[in-house]
Amino acid sequence: xxxxxxxxxxxxxxxxxxxxxxxxxxxxxxxxxxxxxxxxxxxxxxxxxxxxxxxxxxxxxxxxxxxxxxxxxxxxxxxxxxxxxxxxxxxxxxxxxxxxxxxxxxxxxxxxxxxxxxxxxxxxxx
Length: 126
What we know:
The chain is built from no helices and 11 strands. It has strands spanning 3-7, 10-13, 18-25, 33-39, 46-52, 58-60, 68-73, 78-83, 92-99, 115-116, 120-125. The strands form 2 sheets. Strands 2, 4, 5, 6, 9, 10 and 11 form a 7-stranded mixed beta sheet that branches. By secondary structure, it is mainly β.
């Protein structure tokens, strides 16, 4: 099995920055894609960003383009989400997820991901 552990969440003011980390263990990820999702109270889980282990191609939802950056460190089996220029609407629980069979057409769907972390809270004050 694969275990994913997120860290780095917290409380920041609007315009501030946070870097989330997702440490993976239990299986190699050379052929996996990693994604970040978020879920605000009373709302559905929302796709944020994804990265392929092979090639490093990245994908973002429109609302975070230019502000968030997803990256990886293969040697550490860790994926990061650098979040800059944070807005109150970014407030949510952020989840890391792993997929062994991800396509562009379905990468925004939570059901396409096989493993999930426990989530880390990000709160942005106005």
